[in-house]
Amino acid sequence: MYMDAVVLAGIATVLLMVVFFIGVGIFVMRDQKSHGGSQAKKSIKTSRKAA
């Protein structure tokens, strides 16, 4: 395969998008661990009151 500047830029773009989404996933998992438990308990309590 002929490695042109456009091909290298495309590969770099795809790799940057993958790294970005992995970073977002890590952020969400860490945030869910720190805040998810209390938020889930609140939603359960409010759903019981509504029912």
Largest sheet: none
As residue ranges, the low-confidence spans are none
**Distance N to C terminus:** 63 Å
Quote the beta fraction: under 5%
Radius of gyration: 21 Å
- What's the overall average pLDDT, rounded? 83
- What is the number of helical segments per DSSP (H or I, 4+ residues)? 1
Morphology: rod-shaped
Secondary structure tally: strands: 0
Q: Structural class per helix/strand content?
A: mainly alpha
The share of residues in helices is over 70%
Output the helix-strand order. H
What's the oligomerization state?
single chain
Region (Disordered): 32-51
Protein name: DUF3149 domain-containing protein
Transmembrane segments: 6-29
Biased composition (Basic residues): 42-51
